[in-house]
């Protein structure tokens, strides 16, 4: 019969609407002065943190002085394409759009330079003439000879037709790009000079004129580009650099007029050594530069009037951002007064404050047990999360995302948000593990002789297990100090009688309390075997306990833990999994350290909100509940799935922090990986099956706190799954950076910093939390970090498989496996080894081609190295696993060595 669920359970479970309302009512009623004082202190801390982060916004947006933009400048280079328009795809601006641009530019100059007469740009000279603008007409010269001919003919025709054309530029960096030879370009120049009456030239970077001075013999003036950004010159030194190069050209060609064909600075893109592309740097450079050029009387064109989003495919990350106006024809920086990086930073600071307040309320909605230090930590965390989110959102809004990049960047943005959410949940667990002075639901061993002690049926499932190991498990069960219990042992599907017959005989020797079942065939794996035993359980047994066949329980296990069932609300009582073979090898010591975190940190904090994960050994379930729900035979993690359904039905669970039994850890890396693969795959199965109830509650009796812990607990594994795609994407991106270095820059920092932050936080959390909550030293915490990180790829694969498949065979974790050497161990990590080599190769390749010339490259190289660390950890674990096998074989008795392979 289902135990009665009293109305007081809801408040005991934590995150419930009633509990929140009661707590809020207490705060507002003034009944608890200490609560008011604590609330006041927290408000003060929030204000202090808000002031610090607002100072951060202010510090990064300090006004920078620069000369005001002059009333008139010499000219703008003009490419007319707006967002969505692209000459390479035949998408040209309309005449109305061209006219609108020319009217806007005429407010600041009476001269423009265009680069081609292709498409609708052939209309620019006519429109310019109507508006009184003068045009430097460009003839685009490339390796396409037919197009060159069309451009030349059209340019000659337009020059002869419109008086607005004051000069013709044949080719733009054509020699620098190696599109034509010197002789070919000279032929084009001589042909145009003979056909028109205006001055004719070609435009090249300044060093091309220095290296090929004979080019000047075929032009009427020298048109040179000086772009300090591309030459890695810091913005502070850039104006002097430009004037120095212009002076050099004047000295070289004193008899030729000089035109500075392009001078400018981008507002976005990758950092090149000290050259930083930003709105502030662009504004300060241009406002300084045009004033200096005006003072010296130079002819020049600012590159460029408008941002050109389509140029990202030919000029890389900085290509779209050279405009004084953005692609929407809005002024990118103020022309007078101090320059500020983000003029609306105060609004963004306010937005981050409001978002952090909402985030903090969610984090502390059931945080009454937290010490002030924990609340302060979460306040800072909430502000970091909110500030990062606002900053990323603003930075993303300033980018031109179009075409396939919309999908890619959208996915990256979504994954970045997911990374920040995982960071938030990890920080929340850390705070609740360290800064809670007393657990809210603490279940301690019941040692009184008058305690509630009903009959217990202990179920031991076996499959292909070493007989000697199982005999030790049964002997420990036989020695328990408990008045009334039975032990049911089931061996399902083991084919070799030499494996299961000795266990049957040993059960007979232990007496009538022990019953043995061998069933073959039996479907449903472990869940099927446990379901088989339920109807064979003694009719008067009220509690069913389950242990794995390798566990040696302590005498007092049932005596101390079963009395918790006296509370009719309790349906599950759970003790930690623990292990006894950690001293066998360095490999097992690392595994042991890693296991400790879940059972002594995660389960402890989850128990406060009645949200533990039921794991398949050292677990007890009220018989009536188990008969009602049964073990799920479709799920390879039938234990965790049952525990969730227990909560969905409104039952409660108890978790005791004390260990009452110890088993064996996997002996080899492959078995360690198989075990974690099963856990992660099963978690995804459960999420898919129970998604509606986990997300919305539905008709279940899950509390908000229980839903939070189940979802937050599995989020890091899902993040590992997404990280697998990120890794492959990083390898592809790096390969393209190596193959096409001038076209592809490192990803934006908003997509690299959050994953780096998550990795560093997780490692730091392990090193800090294991020492504080588990009580291990720094070496033990480092071991846990190494072993846990080594499983990242395995978990990632399990998550991906879990979302795209419905079932996989049950994967047993073999114990006392007898194998293997170094090469076999390395073969078990072959996927990680391949990925490690690829990532290190990508790191070396990007460095060889790009060096560390920008902040973006530094972060990208660091990201590649960080992505390689989990795979390196797996290889290290493989080596340690092989060493442990050699040591163990030397110690084990012959009977324990040879074990048939499990599945």
From TrEMBL:
Keywords: Glycosyltransferase, Hydrolase, Membrane, Transferase, Transmembrane, Transmembrane helix
SUPFAM superfamilies with a match to the protein in the record: (Trans)glycosidases (SSF51445), Nucleotide-diphospho-sugar transferases (SSF53448)
Transmembrane segments: 39-59, 345-365, 377-394, 400-424, 717-736, 748-770, 790-811, 862-881
Protein name: Exo-beta-1,3-glucanase, GH17 family
Keyword check for Repeat: no
Location of the protein in the cell: Membrane
Membrane protein topology class: Multi-pass membrane protein
Pfam families registered for this protein in UniProt: Glyco_tranf_2_3
The keyword rRNA processing is assigned to this record: no
Organism phylogeny: Bacteria, Pseudomonadati, Myxococcota, Myxococcia, Myxococcales
Organism: Myxococcus fulvus
InterPro entries reported for this sequence: GH, Glyco_hydro_17, Glycosyltr_2/OpgH_subfam, Nucleotide-diphossugar_trans
Gene3D superfamilies assigned to the protein according to its UniProt record, in alphabetical order: Glycosidases, Spore Coat Polysaccharide Biosynthesis Protein SpsA, Chain A
């Amino acid at each position: 019969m289902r135990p009665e669920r009293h109305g007081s359970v809801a408040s005991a479970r934590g995150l419930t609407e009633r509990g929140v309302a009661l707590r809020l009512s207490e705060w507002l009623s003034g009944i608890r002065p200490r609560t008011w004082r604590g609330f006041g202190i927290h408000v003060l801390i929030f204000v202090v943190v808000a002031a610090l982060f607002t100072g951060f916004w202010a510090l990064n947006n300090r006004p920078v002085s620069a000369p005001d933009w002059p009333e008139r400048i010499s000219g703008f280079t003009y490419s007319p394409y707006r967002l969505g328009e692209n000459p390479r795809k035949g998408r040209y601006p309309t005449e109305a759009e061209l006219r609108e641009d020319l009217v806007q530019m005429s407010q600041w100059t009476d001269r423009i330079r265009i680069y081609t007469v292709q498409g609708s740009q052939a209309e620019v000279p006519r429109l310019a003439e109507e508006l009184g603008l003068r045009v430097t007409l460009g003839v685009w010269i490339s390796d396409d000879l037919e197009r060159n001919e069309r451009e030349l003919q059209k340019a000659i025709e337009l020059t002869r037709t419109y008086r607005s054309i004051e000069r013709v530029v044949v080719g733009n960096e054509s020699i620098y790009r190696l599109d034509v030879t010197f002789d070919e370009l000279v032929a084009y120049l001589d042909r145009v000079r003979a056909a028109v009456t205006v001055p004719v030239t070609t435009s090249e970077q300044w060093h091309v004129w220095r290296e090929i001075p004979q080019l000047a013999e075929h032009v009427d003036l020298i048109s040179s580009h000086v772009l300090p950004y591309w030459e890695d010159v810091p913005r502070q030194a850039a104006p002097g650099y430009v004037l120095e190069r212009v002076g050099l050209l004047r000295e070289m060609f004193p008899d030729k007029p000089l035109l500075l064909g392009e001078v400018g600075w981008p507002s976005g893109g990758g950092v090149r050594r000290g050259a930083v592309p930003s709105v502030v740097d662009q504004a300060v450079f241009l406002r300084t530069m045009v004033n200096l050029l005006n003072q010296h009387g130079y002819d020049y064109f600012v590159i460029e009037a408008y941002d050109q989003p389509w140029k990202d495919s030919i000029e890389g990350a900085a290509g779209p951002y050279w405009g004084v106006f953005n692609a929407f024809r809005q002024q990118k920086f103020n022309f007078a007064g101090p320059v500020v990086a983000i003029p609306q930073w105060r609004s963004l600071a306010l937005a981050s404050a409001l978002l952090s307040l909402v985030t903090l309320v969610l984090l502390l909605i059931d945080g009454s047990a937290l010490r002030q230090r924990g609340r302060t930590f979460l306040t800072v965390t909430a502000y970091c999360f909110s500030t990062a989110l606002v900053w990323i959102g603003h930075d993303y809004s300033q980018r031109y995302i179009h075409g396939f990049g919309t999908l890619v960047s959208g996915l990256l943005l979504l994954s970045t948000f997911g990374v920040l959410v995982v960071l938030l949940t990890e920080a929340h667990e850390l705070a609740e593990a360290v800064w809670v002075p007393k657990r809210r639901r603490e279940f301690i061993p019941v040692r009184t002789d008058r305690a509630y002690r009903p009959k217990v049926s202990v179920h031991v499932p076996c499959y292909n297990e070493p007989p000697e190991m199982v005999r030790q498990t049964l002997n420990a069960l036989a020695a328990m100090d408990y008045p009334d219990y039975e032990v049911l042992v089931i061996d399902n599907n083991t084919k070799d009688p030499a494996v299961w017959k000795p266990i049957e005989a040993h059960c007979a020797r232990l007496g009538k309390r022990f019953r043995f079942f061998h069933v073959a065939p039996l479907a449903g794996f472990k869940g099927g075997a446990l379901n088989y035993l339920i109807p064979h359980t003694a009719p008067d047994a009220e509690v069913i306990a389950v242990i794995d066949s390798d566990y040696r329980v302590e005498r007092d296990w049932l005596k101390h833990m079963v009395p918790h069932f006296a509370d009719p609300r309790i349906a599950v009582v759970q003790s930690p999994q623990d292990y006894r073979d950690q001293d066998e090898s360095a490999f097992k010591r690392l595994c042991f350290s890693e296991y400790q975190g879940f059972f002594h940190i995660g389960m402890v904090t989850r128990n406060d909100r009645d949200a533990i994960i039921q794991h398949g050994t050292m677990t007890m379930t009220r018989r009536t509940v188990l008969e009602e729900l049964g073990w799920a035979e479709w799920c390879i993690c039938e234990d965790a799935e049952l525990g969730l359904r227990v909560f969905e039905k409104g039952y409660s669970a108890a978790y005791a922090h004390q260990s009452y039994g110890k088993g064996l850890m996997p002996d080899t890396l492959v078995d360690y990986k198989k075990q974690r693969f099963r856990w992660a795959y099963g978690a995804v199965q459960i999420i898919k099956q129970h998604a509606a109830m986990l997300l919305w509650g539905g008709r279940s009796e899950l509390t908000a706190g229980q839903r939070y812990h189940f979802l937050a607990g599995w989020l890091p594994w899902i993040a590992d799954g997404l990280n697998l795609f990120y890794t492959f994407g990083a390898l592809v991106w790096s390969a393209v950076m190596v193959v096409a270095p001038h076209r592809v820059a490192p990803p934006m920092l908003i997509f690299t910093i959050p994953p780096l932050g998550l990795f560093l936080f997780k490692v730091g959390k392990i090193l800090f939390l294991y020492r504080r909550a588990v009580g291990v030293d720094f070496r033990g915490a480092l071991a846990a970090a190494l072993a846990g990180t080594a499983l990242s790829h395995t978990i990632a694969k399990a998550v991906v498989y879990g979302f795209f498949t419905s079932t996989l065979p049950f994967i047993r974790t073999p114990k006392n496996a007898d194998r293997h050497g170094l090469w076999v161990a390395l073969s078990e990590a072959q996927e990680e080894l391949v990925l490690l080599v690829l990532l290190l190769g990508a790191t070396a390749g990007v460095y060889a081609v790009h060096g560390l010339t920008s902040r973006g490259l530094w972060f990208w190289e660091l990201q590649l190295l960080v992505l390689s660390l989990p795979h390196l950890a797996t290889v290290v674990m493989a080596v340690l696993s092989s060493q442990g096998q050699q040591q163990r074989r030397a110690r084990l008795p012959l009977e324990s060595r040879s074990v048939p392979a499990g599945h």
